[in-house]
Design a protein that fits this description.
With 466 residues, the chain is an all-alpha fold. Helices cover 78% and strands 0% of the residues. α19 packs across α20.
């Protein structure tokens, strides 16, 4: 009895179950997106009142701050992906990222200078990168291929709740209790995340045999840290040289579904970042709305994901990502154009505050519904591209696989979009107006619809269940 308790940790069955791991990663994503979106509606107050900057600089500083976040993630992602694929358990990485998120949030809350503001966001961005790369790699390693879409759907719900909840809660608490009351919610979210990450135990599909062997009396520590002899024997028998370094990424980028996934993910990020950068200021200048109505609009944009992400994920598990992604981008073309219409003098029928606000709110909500068809496309295709390549060439990515590196590459496409998105939307709004900027985004969505149809696939590669 004593030996058994030493071999199997307390609550091993439920702490290592697929649903608990997915739930933990969902809460982790919710926390990360909550921290990211939390600052958006109160950023004008921070810049103009706490830092004492001129209001004319608000748009420019907001653009720089959001772009810096994405730039840091682009630089850090490959390094994290490479090291995470070589390491064993990933829980330590996740806890390290959470500590960084806490430190970055503390610096942001206390910031009274631009240097402190950008430093806090830098630390928070590095911690966020750890979570996205290691978190999605953990999901890929623990979830069967034919359930990835559905499980990513659950995670997408959490991301939507975090993205919409951050601005919404920040706006409400800021209006009711002030600056420090708003920041108190951050501590609550992080503490809850810490508890779940400490409880989670990994049980990847490659370790399934080791778990069963452990119960037969074999050494569990050795099985967790080392790949199984059978796995090494299968790799060597194929005679396939392992792809490392730049050769790994060249091999991955030669896969059409991966390329289609990262391009779609990039455009999705550009569209999302344009909302973060321009929406609060646009509704303030056009409709004279404060932080609370702006937060409600973010909820309308992200809220539909709560209802549609899991059904869409289930659909993608059956038909692949090709048709949902193609249709999603095609439907976004008229909707993105429409949100640029209210307040533009070329459309006098939409310049009335009441009519214009109704049109704008309806269009934003419609985009929130349609964009659910794009959720997870980059991560799903990155994971399935690895499965597809390894099925044709077993062992090509080494005994630990290549999920972390593939996810990090997909994450780079997202963060590049988050970097370029604020530049396109912020600079575009200043130079050609809000309507012209949205016309550019609508054209981008149309081109992405053709790219998705050409590159993505309607099949889901199979692999052993965990």
């Amino acid at each position: 009895m004593r030996a058994s308790s030493q071999q199997e940790p307390w609550g091993f069955q439920w702490r290592s179950s697929t649903y608990f791991i997915v739930g933990t990663m969902a809460v982790a994503m919710l926390t990360d997106m909550y921290l990211y979106g939390f600052l958006v509606p109160i950023l004008p107050f921070v810049l103009e009142h706490r830092l004492g900057l001129d209001a004319s600089l608000t748009q420019r500083i907001s653009t720089a701050l959001l772009s810096q976040t994405a730039l840091i993630m682009v630089v850090v992602s490959p390094l994290i992906g490479s090291h995470a694929d070589r390491s064993g358990a990933k829980r330590a990485w996740l806890l390290f990222g959470l500590a960084g998120a806490l430190l970055g949030s503390f610096i942001l809350a206390m910031a009274t200078s631009l240097f402190a503001l950008f430093t806090g966001r830098l630390i928070q961005s590095a911690a966020s990168t750890v979570l996205w790369v290691v978190g999605f790699a953990t999901l890929a390693d623990n979830v069967p291929a034919d359930e990835l879409g559905k499980m990513y759907g659950f995670v997408t719900i959490a991301i939507g709740l975090g993205t919409s909840g951050g601005p919404l809660v920040a706006g409400i608490l800021f209006d009711i209790g002030g600056y420090w009351v708003a920041w108190s919610s951050v501590l609550f979210v992080i503490v809850f995340d810490v508890i779940l990450r400490c409880l989670m135990l990994e049980k990847s599909r490659d370790r399934g045999e080791s778990v069963r062997a452990k119960r037969d009396g074999q050494d569990p520590e050795r099985e967790v840290l080392l790949p199984s002899p059978d796995s090494e024997e299968r790799i060597s028998s194929q005679g396939v040289s392992e792809k490392t370094g730049i050769h790994f990424y060249l091999c991955l980028c030669s896969n059409g579904r991966f390329v289609g996934g990262v391009v779609s993910y990039f455009c999705y990020a550009v569209l999302t970042a344009s909302f973060d950068t321009t929406l609060p200021l646009h509704v303030r200048d056009t409709f004279h709305w404060g932080s609370l109505p702006a937060g409600l609009l973010f909820a309308a944009f992200q809220g539909p994901a709560v209802f549609f992400s899991v059904p869409v994920g289930w659909l993608k598990d059956r038909v692949g990502t090709r048709y949902p992604t193609t249709i999603g981008f095609a439907l976004l073309v008229p909707l993105v154009w429409l949100i640029g219409v209210p307040g533009d003098e070329r459309f006098p029928w939409a310049c009335n505050d009441k009519i214009g606000s109704i049109i704008y709110s309806a269009a934003v909500t419609g985009i929130g519904v349609v964009i659910c068809l794009l959720n997870g496309v980059g991560m799903v295709e990155a994971t399935q591209a690895v499965d597809e390549i390894q099925a044709e060439n077993p062992g090509i990515f080494g005994p630990n696989g290549g999920y972390s590196r593939a996810v990090s590459t997909s994450s780079i496409s997202w963060t590049l979009g988050m970097f370029i998105g604020p530049i396109i939307s912020g600079y575009g709004t200043e130079q050609i107006g809000y309507y012209g900027m949205n016309c550019v985004l609508a054209v981008m969505c149309g081109l992405c619809s053709f790219t998705a149809f050409w590159n993505l696939k309607s099949s889901v590669p199979q692999r052993p269940r965990p």
